[in-house]
Design goal:
Layout: E1 2-5, E2 11-15, E3 18-22, E4 40-42, E5 55-58, H1 68-71, E6 80-82, H2 84-92, E7 98-100, E8 106-109, E9 112-123, E10 126-135, E11 141-144, E12 162-164, E13 169-172, E14 176-179, H3 182-192, E15 196-198, E16 207-209, E17 217-219, H4 222-231, E18 237-238, E19 246-248, H5 251-254
Parallel strand pairs: 3-5, 5-6, 6-7, 11-12, 12-15, 15-18
Antiparallel strand pairs: 1-2, 1-19, 2-3, 4-16, 8-9, 9-10, 10-11, 13-14, 13-17
Organism: Candidatus Synechococcus calcipolaris G9
Pfam families: Lactamase_B_3
Protein name: MBL fold metallo-hydrolase
Length: 257
């Protein structure tokens, strides 16, 4: 299993030889609507679309996960799997092989089993996706949820090898956590007992502006979270990647009993 963090919530995963581009935002600014005065994020320079992508996986329909300018630079023949909202956007951009998954649904693509899990709430009785992936050859498993909203029904029959989720909470005054790390991540670790936990939703090279960004507050840090895992009696190791750093995790030791 090879993992490359592309900053923010963008990832490149290689599982059993399949290259999966996840929630890509690589070019242009990020805004929610045309409101740069409220929130704007951008990279110091555009990044190239990784080559030889076999599958695009989208967790949410929001632009920090389904980013139209980035997807517009991808080959429209690449298969896409996403939440219902993300799949609708992918189709509107001209992707020809799009599969929408609702929480609880499974899909096997090539040699990867993909289970959609209940993710972030986006309205009354509306949720986006987390994902539990398993390589059918190596049997290695990876769980991903980018905002820290974990399916209460999610249980693993065996140890999950890698969890990618926020480990530190980001809060706003009066609203509380908008990205849930901390306690939510620790509870998840106790349920899934992963070998590794890797943070996402970070800002390695990103530049932020706008009124909203002045209110962001981080609660905790990765060293504190590693200590909490140890206090809980877990052997889980926290790994932190730099932007565009790749980490190879050999499935053989991951699967040792």
């Amino acid at each position: 299993m090879d993992l490359t963090w592309l900053d923010s919530n963008s990832w490149l995963w290689q599982i059993d030889g399949t290259r999966i581009l996840v929630d890509p935002w690589l070019v242009g600014p990020l805004m929610f609507g045309q409101t740069p005065w409220f929130f704007k994020a951008q990279r110091p320079y555009d990044r190239p679309i990784p080559e030889n992508i076999d599958l695009i996986l989208l967790s949410q329909g929001l632009p920090d996960h389904t980013h139209p300018p980035t997807l517009s630079q991808c080959d429209r023949q690449i298969p896409v799997i996403g939440s219902v909202a993300a799949a609708d956007i992918a189709r509107s951009l001209g992707f020809s092989q799009v599969t929408a998954l609702k929480p609880g649904e499974n899909h096997t693509w090539n040699n990867i089993n993909i289970q959609a899990t209940l993710g972030s709430p986006v309205g009354p009785n509306r949720y986006e996706n987390g994902y539990l992936l398993q390589g059918l050859t190596s049997k290695t498993t990876l769980y991903y949820e980018p905002h820290g909203y974990h399916d209460p029904q999610l249980q693993s029959p065996t140890t999950v090898d890698v969890v990618i989720t926020p480990l530190v909470s980001i809060t706003l005054p009066l609203l509380g956590a908008i990205i849930q790390g901390g306690v939510a991540a620790l509870n998840l670790a106790q349920r899934l007992t992963p070998t590794y936990m890797i943070p996402t939703a970070g800002a390695g090279e990103l530049e932020f502006s706008g009124w909203l960004t002045r209110l962001f507050q981080a609660d905790g840090d990765l060293d504190q979270f590693q200590e909490q895992l140890q206090i809980a009696g877990l052997d889980t190791q926290v790994l932190q990647l730099n932007p565009w750093e790749s980490r190879s995790l050999d499935p053989t030791p991951l699967r040792q009993p």
